[in-house]
Amino acid sequence: xxxxxxxxxxxxxxxxxxxxxxxxxxxxxxxxxxxxxxxxxxxxxxxxxxxxxxxxxxxxxxxxxxxxxxxxxxxxxxxxxxxxxxxxxxxxxxxxxxxxxxxxxxxxxxxxxxxxxx
Length: 118
Known about the structure:
This protein has helices spanning 7-19, 78-93, and strands at 23-34, 39-48, 99-105, 111-115. By secondary structure, it is of the alpha+beta class. The chain has a single domain (7-115), classed as Nucleoside Triphosphate Pyrophosphohydrolase.
């Protein structure tokens, strides 16, 4: 987020910068606390307003992919992978509850996702 920017505004701006895509946000979907780097990551459910998208200045490529087309082993951030897994599961039921978790580092330097209880 930039100064004087809401989370919704930040999500729209980041989407425009990274994918040249205009979106309408439907609501917060997942959020993750990453205390080891003093960050919180927010993910929103949104719809594309049109199919006019492209790689932005911060991206090498962008594409719309189905579940079987996603290169799961190449996803660098656990929060992104976890959010996508939840989305495909929730999409089948058409129920999108707000989910949250902490991502922590264990003694072996592995990142562990600890979901918050609902």
